[in-house]
Amino acid sequence: MIKTHKIALDPNRDQLAWFYQQCGYAKFAYNSALSDFKAELASDNFLSMYDLNKRFNKKKKAFDWTQAQDQRAAMYAVHNLGSAIDNWKAKRAKFPRLKRRGCKHSYTTDEQAVRMEGKRIKLPKIGWIKTFEALRFRGKIVSVTISRTAHRWFASVSVEVQPPIRRCPASSEFFDWYASEVEVGTPHEIERSIYPTLGIDVGISTLATLDDGTKYENPKPLKRYERKLAREQRKLSRKVFLSKNWYKQKRKVERLHYRIACIRRDAHHKATTDILIGASRVGIETLQITNLLKNRKLAKALSDAALGGFLEKLKTKVKSLGIPIVQADRFFASSKNCSSCGHKKENLMLSDRQYDCSHCGMSIDRDVNAAINLRNLAAGYAES
Fold first, then answer.
1. Per residue in 118-156, pLDDT tens?
2. Which terminus, N or C, of the chain has the lesser number of Cβ atoms within 10 Å?
3. What are the two backbone dihedrals, phi and then psi, of residue 63, each rounded to the nearest 5 degrees?
4. pTM for this prediction
């Protein structure tokens, strides 16, 4: 199992210049290989990734400055082009385009010359670089990707770790004692009696609602910084395109977007970690985010909540902890069904935040009712 830890770097001025050089070298290799591919494609000759890499290795000898660069950056750039071509052939993506100046800065190197000791990392040809934190995982380093986001440089370290171990206590003495106390015998029954099954309903105003009524609020960072972001973007539009002042103002806009993303990501990680501390099984709903974004009245609020990212983080942590997850059907009416009697309320509007059942008379919060239905679905799936 491969897990990645994205660590912020603390480089000096020379190391920053080195990062920009390697990112430029990776773009040069990518664009050169793409030009060769287009030229041969016009004559009905299809070049593979290995052919493109061989051609670039011959072509780079004509440039003296390439000898001082990290050759792994060029190699992985050509490999990325090969993946893009495969996606284009399978009709999963459009035809790859040339990378222009000013696009995302990143390059990849392998594990052969990479070492990590505490709060520092050793990269090929540049040496040791300070980091803001130590590597979280233990295992064999597979690859390292250096990238820039706004004013920060990051190292995404991929590590091969052991498969997840179930959280249920593995002691046979504990099983025997607990089985005698609560009169259940199997490990799965013990786990379900210790850790309950949770139902999670996600939304816009409230990020996540649990079946016990616990709610995790949505910080809405885009709404908080919307006026400031609009003001900085107006300043950017008044600058001369690609001038020095334009690049300075662009950095300000990037830093503001980075702050918004950090607030949103922090809320997602804290909520998912707190939810999964005490869960043996999780029930969630299936959301078609692309279809929901077609509603122009809710598109901005949905994008600000980033429900798709929240559910992906939840699925990733559930997989790493070994907790089973039950995803409801796309057309499962978790909000319209009564969690007490099962009666379906067809005329439930989005503005109705309180669920009042006309069949059994129960009155409950709409999100809590949906979370209870998802919990019952997950618990029923466990029993079946």
1. 899 999 899 999 999 999 888 889 889 999 999 999 999
2. C
3. -115, 120
4. 0.80
